[in-house]
Structures are given as C-alpha cells and as structure tokens.
Amino acid sequence: MLGxxxxxxxxxxxxxxxxxxxxxxxxxxDMTSPLTHFDAQGQAHMVDVSAKAETHRVAVxxxxxxxxxxxxxxxxxxxxxxxxxxxxxxxxAIQGAKRCSDLVPLCHPLPITRVKVDxxxxxxxxxxxxxxxxxxxxxxGVEMEALCAVQVGLLTIYDMCKAADxxxxxxxxxxxxxxxxxxxxxxxx
Length: 189
Hints:
elongated, five-stranded antiparallel β-sheet, 5 helices
C-alpha cells in the first residue's frame, strides 16, 4: 500500500491515464469506470443527481489522533491551555460536516438533518477516537460530510494541543457505514 492507495487503485489510475492519453473513452456507454465525477471526455464535473429519489441517507465515519501520554492527560483532565478541547472539537466537527461542499469541489451542498459526534478516550493507546454520524433527506449520500466532520474534529484537537505536542498523528480516517439511496446499505469489514 502506498499512501493509502492499494495496487488496485494504482492500476485503475494507470488505465485511466493511458485512456486519456490515447483516444477519448466514452465512459457513458462502457460503464466500466466507477469514477462518476468525470464526463465522457474525462473532464471533472458535478454529478447530476436530479433523477435520483430523495431518501433518508446516513453515513458514519471514524478516525483517531495519537499523541504523547502527557498530551493525552491534558485533554482527559480538561486542563489544556486553550480550554475544553473535546467540546470545541465537537463543534468544529459539526461545522466541518456543514461546510463540506465548500472544501471538496465536486460535493453537492446538502440539507443536513443531523450530525452526531462522539469522542472516545483511549488512555492505553494515548489516543482520541472520533466518530461522526451525518444524516440527510436527499438525492446523494453524506459519506463525504461524515469524513469531513471527523477530519475537522481531529484537526481541531491538533490545533488546540500543538503547543504541547507537534508530533500528534491523525490516522485511520474512514467510512464505517452508509445507508440509503439506490446502492442501499454498506458496512465496512
């Protein structure tokens, strides 16, 4: 694995690059490409979701930030110099979900109906785990919003504690599950 990319991802990117260098490929007739953010000419575009049904959609994402035990103790005790780290990170994560389409260019702005953010303290691992659940009634899923919530929540922890520990590591950010839409339910294994 290279930077989170599997051999399958690298092979797909190579095939797409070769296809773009040769004659343009018509992905609309040859539905072999799972990359819906490219048109028939290989240009990036926002996916048209107007024909999709509005359904209740849910996505759950998670991630963690690892740190020195002394930094963990500051967060756990609530004595960090900048105040209630997890309280501020929770609000930041909610804002992250709400602002996802401002940050990720091809995301649709969505009417989010719920964002739930939980933090778990793992003293033995000297880490804070973040889990975000995002919901909407809409035509497209909220996986990106859940991922954005987790990332912004963890980045806020880093920001609030960086004076004590610049070596903190944000890791394992991923989608755990999604529900709704034509593809139905998906759960990470």
